[in-house]
Protein backbone atom coordinates (compact mmCIF):
# COMPACT_ATOMS: atom_id res chain seq x y z
CA UNK A 1 0.00 0.00 0.00
CA UNK A 2 2.83 2.37 0.89
CA UNK A 3 4.57 1.54 -2.41
CA UNK A 4 1.41 2.38 -4.37
CA UNK A 5 1.07 5.69 -2.50
CA UNK A 6 4.72 6.60 -3.16
CA UNK A 7 4.42 5.67 -6.86
CA UNK A 8 1.18 7.66 -7.18
CA UNK A 9 2.71 10.71 -5.48
CA UNK A 10 5.80 10.45 -7.68
CA UNK A 11 3.68 10.27 -10.82
CA UNK A 12 1.62 13.25 -9.69
CA UNK A 13 4.78 15.31 -9.09
CA UNK A 14 6.12 14.42 -12.54
CA UNK A 15 2.87 15.52 -14.19
CA UNK A 16 2.82 18.79 -12.25
CA UNK A 17 6.49 19.51 -12.99
CA UNK A 18 6.16 18.78 -16.70
CA UNK A 19 6.04 21.88 -18.89
CA UNK A 20 3.00 22.64 -21.01
CA UNK A 21 2.83 21.36 -24.58
CA UNK A 22 4.16 23.98 -26.97
CA UNK A 23 3.03 23.93 -30.55
CA UNK A 24 6.01 24.78 -32.77
CA UNK A 25 3.91 26.07 -35.65
CA UNK A 26 4.26 29.76 -36.40
CA UNK A 27 1.28 31.91 -35.53
CA UNK A 28 -0.56 33.46 -38.45
CA UNK A 29 -0.07 37.22 -38.65
CA UNK A 30 -2.05 39.92 -40.41
CA UNK A 31 0.24 41.37 -43.09
CA UNK A 32 -2.16 43.94 -44.58
CA UNK A 33 -5.28 45.58 -43.15
CA UNK A 34 -7.46 48.24 -44.76
CA UNK A 35 -10.44 49.84 -43.02
CA UNK A 36 -12.77 52.47 -44.44
CA UNK A 37 -15.08 54.01 -41.86
CA UNK A 38 -15.50 57.42 -43.50
CA UNK A 39 -19.26 56.94 -43.76
CA UNK A 40 -19.93 55.40 -40.31
CA UNK A 41 -22.49 54.65 -38.98
CA UNK A 42 -24.08 54.25 -42.42
CA UNK A 43 -21.48 51.98 -44.05
CA UNK A 44 -18.05 50.40 -43.65
CA UNK A 45 -15.48 48.35 -45.59
CA UNK A 46 -12.50 46.30 -44.52
CA UNK A 47 -9.98 43.89 -45.99
CA UNK A 48 -7.10 41.92 -44.54
CA UNK A 49 -4.46 39.50 -45.80
CA UNK A 50 -2.74 37.03 -43.48
CA UNK A 51 0.70 35.46 -43.63
CA UNK A 52 -0.76 32.02 -44.40
CA UNK A 53 -2.40 33.32 -47.61
CA UNK A 54 -5.89 33.64 -46.15
CA UNK A 55 -7.85 36.86 -46.57
CA UNK A 56 -11.20 38.48 -45.82
CA UNK A 57 -13.11 41.33 -47.41
CA UNK A 58 -16.38 42.77 -46.15
CA UNK A 59 -18.68 45.71 -46.87
CA UNK A 60 -21.75 46.71 -44.94
CA UNK A 61 -24.31 49.46 -45.41
CA UNK A 62 -27.64 50.43 -43.94
CA UNK A 63 -30.40 50.16 -46.51
CA UNK A 64 -33.53 52.35 -46.31
CA UNK A 65 -31.90 54.60 -43.75
CA UNK A 66 -34.35 56.63 -41.68
CA UNK A 67 -37.34 54.39 -42.35
CA UNK A 68 -39.01 51.56 -40.46
CA UNK A 69 -37.54 49.27 -43.15
CA UNK A 70 -33.92 50.17 -42.31
CA UNK A 71 -31.64 47.13 -42.29
CA UNK A 72 -27.93 46.37 -42.38
CA UNK A 73 -26.85 44.71 -45.63
CA UNK A 74 -23.47 42.94 -45.52
CA UNK A 75 -21.51 41.04 -48.17
CA UNK A 76 -18.01 39.73 -48.32
CA UNK A 77 -15.60 36.91 -49.03
CA UNK A 78 -13.16 34.77 -47.05
CA UNK A 79 -10.29 32.82 -48.65
CA UNK A 80 -8.19 30.13 -46.99
CA UNK A 81 -5.92 27.18 -47.79
CA UNK A 82 -6.66 23.73 -46.43
CA UNK A 83 -3.97 21.35 -45.14
CA UNK A 84 -3.40 20.05 -48.70
CA UNK A 85 -2.67 23.54 -50.04
CA UNK A 86 -5.99 23.90 -51.90
CA UNK A 87 -7.51 27.38 -51.96
CA UNK A 88 -11.16 27.78 -50.95
CA UNK A 89 -13.42 30.81 -50.99
CA UNK A 90 -16.64 31.50 -49.14
CA UNK A 91 -18.79 34.33 -50.44
CA UNK A 92 -21.51 35.52 -48.08
CA UNK A 93 -24.38 37.96 -47.97
CA UNK A 94 -26.52 38.91 -45.00
CA UNK A 95 -29.51 41.18 -44.87
CA UNK A 96 -33.26 41.28 -44.50
CA UNK A 97 -33.59 37.99 -46.37
CA UNK A 98 -31.20 36.13 -44.05
CA UNK A 99 -27.67 34.79 -44.36
CA UNK A 100 -26.49 33.08 -47.53
CA UNK A 101 -23.14 31.53 -48.39
CA UNK A 102 -21.45 29.91 -51.35
CA UNK A 103 -18.27 27.92 -50.74
CA UNK A 104 -16.14 26.89 -53.68
CA UNK A 105 -12.73 25.40 -54.31
CA UNK A 106 -10.66 27.96 -56.22
CA UNK A 107 -7.53 25.87 -56.89
What is this structure's SSE topology?
Blueprint lengths: L1 H16 L12 E7 L6 E8 L4 E9 L7 E11 L5 E9 L2 E8 L2
Antiparallel strand pairs: 1-2, 2-3, 3-4, 4-5, 5-6
Keywords: Cuticle, Signal
Pfam families: Chitin_bind_4 (PF00379)
InterPro entries: Insect_cuticle
Question: Top keywords for this entry?
Answer:
107 residues, mainly beta, 6-stranded antiparallel β-sheet, 6 strands, 15% helix, flat
Describe this structure in words.
- The chain has one domain (27-105).
- The chain is built from 1 helix and 6 strands; from the N terminus they run H-E-E-E-E-E-E.
- The protein has one helix at 2-17; strands at residues 30-36, 43-50, 55-63, 71-81, 87-95, 98-105.
- The radius of gyration is 25 Å and the shape is flat.
- It has 107 residues and is mainly β.
- The protein has a 6-stranded antiparallel sheet with strand order 1-2-3-4-5-6, with no helix packed on it.
- Residues 1-7 have low confidence and may be disordered.
- 0% of the residues are buried.
- Helix content is 15%, strand content 49%.
- GO terms for molecular function: structural constituent of cuticle.
- It comes from Bombyx mandarina.
- Residues 1-18 form the signal peptide.
Amino acid sequence: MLLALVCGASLLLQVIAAGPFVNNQNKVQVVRYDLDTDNLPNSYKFHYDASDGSSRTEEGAIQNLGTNDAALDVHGAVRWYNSKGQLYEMIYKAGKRGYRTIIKKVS
